[in-house]
Design goal:
3 domains; 15% strand; 19 helices; six-stranded parallel beta sheet; six-stranded mixed beta sheet
């Protein structure tokens, strides 16, 4: 009896330990069971690992044999399997580690209760039934994680609603706060950071940190950082499902709104491009009466949004030619290189012009600065002060930021910013750098729905025009890029398809030479590892 209790205890602890990996994946998919199930069964080859044959054999020996030695050998096999699992888990460091938030801790407790209860049942079941249950709880432990998430849902909703209400109370204590909402398929985080850096020199500004662009992200920013002395709150608003922007707009009720772009991002969840346009359009549709919408006229999808008679509209563009309409803010005399950019900002209503210089790289960052300038002037900052606001703007880490590696080669880090527009702009910036080889490391783009192949293939064609060596991460997910490279006449000897990120950087260390320039374009979550 003691050995039975020991075996079941070991298996229960092992299953619970493995639970952390399942919860880690669930956390990266925002605790959404539907998306997690889709991902899990879309990666069915990862459900059972080769080393888990040891666990299966161990269970058979402990449950279906009677001799002490055979059962002890079975227990040893189970422990060896758990050890292998531990080695693999610790050897390959996660790009984004599991955060042991209160929600994760509650999931772990709920899952532990399930495992203990179900494992206890094995003492009262016929032998074969207990074997099946033990194997299922360990090999398919993600099922209990899904169940735990479902069980906890009412509690999580109650807790979240308390936090939301508390955030509303905090906002109510700052009645004169100007709230600026920013959304877009691409560029919203960069625009938010540019706007924050510019406005902070004249106002007391709070912005949502990092990519805190969900309702809970906004709630945390408000509850943890909002002070009565704040004058401006910049709220980044993300969306990957219909209804997300509407929910966020109703939550913080901004009076100023910017849509940076509308493009084919998250098509796998939005299903249609029309849904994306409509959802992003909620930014303008739900602005406070008397508020101001900042319209990027280079994006026809934004220009085509219906206009309200009770809003003010300020148009801007970072493209001097081919605009759909003549904007209120435009630029001319553009100079872009690997050191930064300079351009002349033109304010049509006043006829004033000012020369601006920035360290930010890429033409797409010019649109971010023009949007920031339009908001600054709308808030009363004089136009002749803008050069001071833009001269020391710094790139956000992993969004076309630059670093030198041991004075050997340059890294152009765009790991957090891969999309059809951003990837094209990053290649344009790479092409402007002076150096020996131009190398790219990328796993491609995701979330593009039925346009995944088309857009990644186009990315491959663009790579073939710029890069001297290409390292792709993942044989299957980068197939469209490989086809694009082939179509572009790329030399196969200059292409390496890595099995993992670690493999990619090992290859880089072999080929990189003095003064090469390396572009890191996108860094997929661990859930997308092949």
């Amino acid at each position: 009896m003691f050995l039975d209790i020991l075996i079941i205890s070991v298996v229960t602890i092992a299953a619970w330990y493995k639970t952390h990996t399942h919860i880690h994946h669930l956390q990266q998919i925002s605790y959404k069971n539907k998306n997690y199930i889709k991902w899990r069964f879309g990666n069915y080859t990862k459900i059972i690992r080769p080393h888990e044959v040891l666990f299966i054999g161990g269970v058979f020996l402990t449950q279906l044999t009677d001799t002490l030695w055979s059962r002890l050998i079975g227990l040893l096999l189970i422990l060896i399997d758990v050890y292998f699992f531990h080695l693999i888990r610790t050897a390959y460091a996660a790009k984004k580690k599991l955060k042991y938030t209160p929600r994760v801790k509650r999931l772990l407790v709920t899952n532990a209760i399930q495992l203990i209860g179900l494992m206890t049942l094995t003492f009262f079941m016929v032998t074969w039934a207990s074997v099946i249950l033990i194997l299922a709880l360990y090999l398919f432990g993600f099922i209990t994680v899904i169940a735990s998430n479902l069980i906890n849902k009412p509690m999580e909703l109650t807790i979240n609603n308390w936090y939301y209400n508390d955030a509303h109370k905090t906002l109510a204590k700052v009645p004169n706060l100007t709230i600026i909402g920013i959304t877009g398929s691409y560029g919203k985080t960069s625009t938010k950071n540019v706007l924050n850096a510019m406005l902070s020199k004249d106002f007391n500004v709070l912005m949502t940190p990092e990519s805190f662009n969900t309702k809970m992200g906004l709630t945390r920013a408000i509850r943890e950082h909002m002070k009565p002395t704040h004058e401006i709150f910049i709220a980044e608003m993300g969306a990957d499902h219909v209804g997300d922007i509407k929910e966020l707009m109703e939550f913080v009720q901004p009076s100023l709104g910017i849509i940076t772009s509308i493009g084919p991002q998250h098509l796998d969840t939005f299903k249609t491009f029309e849904n994306i346009v409509n959802e992003k359009g909620n930014m303008f549709r739900l602005l406070k009466t008397g508020g101001t919408a900042f319209v990027n006229v280079t994006d026809s999808n934004i220009v085509g949004l219906p206009r309200r008679s009770d809003l003010n509209y300020v148009s801007f563009s970072a493209q001097p030619d081919g605009n759909i309409e003549t904007p209120d803010f435009n630029i001319e005399s553009i100079s872009v290189n690997s050191k930064g950019s300079s351009f002349t900002l033109v304010h049509k209503p006043s006829g004033k012009k000012v020369r601006l210089t920035t360290q930010l790289l890429g033409r797409h960052n010019l649109a971010n600065i023009v949007a920031g300038a339009a908001v600054a002037i709308n808030l009363g900052i004089p136009m002749d002060r803008l050069p001071y606001l833009t001269m020391d703007l710094k790139p956000v880490d992993h969004r076309l930021s630059i670093r030198r590696v041991n004075d050997h080669y340059t890294v152009l880090d765009d790991a957090f910013n891969s999309n059809p527009v951003g990837s094209r702009m990053a290649l344009e910036v790479l092409d402007q750098f002076e150096g020996n080889q131009k190398i790219i490391i990328t796993p491609g783009m995701i979330g593009l729905g039925d346009r995944h192949y088309e857009l990644n293939k186009a990315f491959g064609v663009n790579i073939s025009k710029t890069c001297d060596f290409t390292i792709l991460v993942g044989k299957h997910q980068t197939r469209p890029i490989q086809d694009g490279l082939e179509e572009g006449g790329y030399n196969p000897a200059k292409l390496y398809v890595a099995k993992s990120t670690q493999d990619a950087f090992s290859k880089l260390s072999e080929i990189v030479k003095q003064d090469d320039v390396v572009l890191l374009e996108n860094d997929l979550p661990d859930t997308f590892n092949e």
